[in-house]
Amino acid sequence: MELETTSDNQVGILTISGQIDAYSAPEVEGALNPLIDEHHGKVVMDLTAVDYVSSAGLRVMLAGLKRTRDMAGPNGHEGDLRIAGLQAQVKEVFDIAGFTPLFKLYDDATAAVKSFA
Predict the structure, then answer these.
(1) How many C-beta neighbours within 10 Å does residue 24 have?
(2) Is the dihedral of CA 20, 67, 3, 49 positive or negative?
(3) Residue 116 belongs to some domain of the structure
(4) Percent of the chain with pLDDT over 90
(5) Core vs surface per residue 37-52: b (16+ CB within 10 A) or e
(6) pTM, two decimal places
């Protein structure tokens, strides 16, 4: 698994490649939490190159979603964790786990970042 953190228009972007499982979930959480803090809860997870997510990965995403939505940024704007680029097999996991209605899903990171405007 590979992680890359960037930002665009004051939105943090966490790009993940590979699998998010019990072994890699703590690393994802370790990258996600500072990104949430630095960008006042406005974060996009780009999962375009993720082909597997376990329950441990889902737990990290749910915890991140809760942290972002509990955080108020400058000007009182609430935070959010938005998901970009779900592959079909990962979307199926989201659907089965009941996560699809919880997150705002976008085709790509660019659309997800623009949605914060």
Answers:
(1) 21
(2) positive
(3) no
(4) 85
(5) eebbbbbbbbbeebee
(6) 0.94
